[in-house]
Protein: Transposase
Amino acid sequence: MIAFDSHTQVYLALGPTDMRKSIDGLAVLVTEVLAADPFSSHLFVFCNRARDKVKLLFWHNNGFWLWYRRLERQRFWWPSESTGGAITLSVRELGWLLEGLDPRRVEAHRRTDFSLL
Structure:
């Protein structure tokens, strides 16, 4: 099992992506469109125009992982900007997105810190 640490960033590619692209094609998009390093051990997420398919690209140790998810009846939340580029999410927010939630609208309990006097 692959574990992501707290330093792992998730980059959502804005706008639709051609889902015929595989590892090499998506790595080129990461470099040229997102201006990022595909070997950086960050997650890069791409979505199609209909918003029912996503692909995640991730470099781990000595090779790429490529995950693909297709929804049968629903649609993923996806930023409406089509200008290219990316927005960043946390790994936790990616989990929300994959579960069908809008990561910008999910609100958690506020953090409470107690200090000893």
